[in-house]
Amino acid sequence: MKSTEDMEKFVADAKPHVTTGESMDKRVLQDSFAAMDEKCRVGLAPPSLIGGLKPTLRFAKLAVAAAVIIAIGVFLTRDRQEPSQPAPPQPAVQAPTAMLSMMSLRTTYQRGGWDALDRQFRDTLDQFGPVASGLSMRQLLEGPNGS
Amino acid sequence: MNNAHRGWFAGTLFVALTVAVVAPPALAIPPDPNNAALLYYQSFLTLAQLDDAARDRIAAVARGDKAPDKQAREDIGKCAGAIEFAEAAVKVPACDWGVRYSRGFEALMPQMAQMRFLSFVLIADARIRAADGNYKGALERCLMTGTFARQIGDETFISYLVSVGVRDLEYKCMQDIVGRSAADAKLLQWLKDELAASDVVTLSPVRSLKNEMEIVSDLLRVDNVEKLARALAGTDPKKAAVIVRKADQKILERARGLYAERMSSALTIFSTPMPYEQAVAQLKQLRDFDPNDPSSQVVQAFIPGLDKIFSQKTAIETHANAIKAGIEVLLSRAKTGQLADALPSSLPGDAFSGKDFDYAKTKDGFTLRCPGRDLDVYRYEFKISK
Question: Does a structural domain hold residue B259?
Answer without folding.
Answer: yes
